[in-house]
Amino acid sequence: MEKHRCGWCVGDDLYEAYHDKEWGVPVYDDATLFEFLILETFQAGLSWITILRKRKNFRKAFDNFDYKRIAKYNQDKIDALLQDAGIIRNKLKVKATITNAQAFLKIQKEFGSFSKYIWNFVDGKPIKNKLKNYKNAPANTALSDTLSKDLKKRGFKFVGSTVVYAHMQATGMVNDHEVGCFRYEEV
Length: 187
Fold this sequence. Notes:
By secondary structure, this protein is an all-alpha fold. About 50% of the residues lie in helices and about 0% in strands. The protein is built from nine helices and two strands, in the order αααααααβααβ. It has a two-stranded parallel ribbon.
């Protein structure tokens, strides 16, 4: 029997696998939270499937999303990244990744972990929405506005409210699976 999935992923094997195994699952691990933050910043202005198709390349190019290493990238590494056809070669986004890694480390130092910092915005537990159709999901909310402003205040780049809301969805801070989706109750 075919499982009912959120409409946005149906028909593409990669999208369906991402939806079934990752999207909306609460993430409390700093390394994974950072990976999604970087992927979301690169996604700004592009489709998520474009980023998913390049995810392995991003992982390789950015040292498995090791934020401690990324925070120390120099101009030679930036130049190499801008020549890497396997990723999105946007100079501002590449530089933002380094800036964001540095800001990420500062948050870890202040709060003990990035996870503690970011999950505090939802009191440590996912917000469970009741969407009948994924098309009714908001692009941003008052909460993503607040989180975006706080991240920017802390030095992060490419973290507008829409990017932040997508990050919240991806990392399970908000459950935006359709109520009829088999994953809605599972996450």
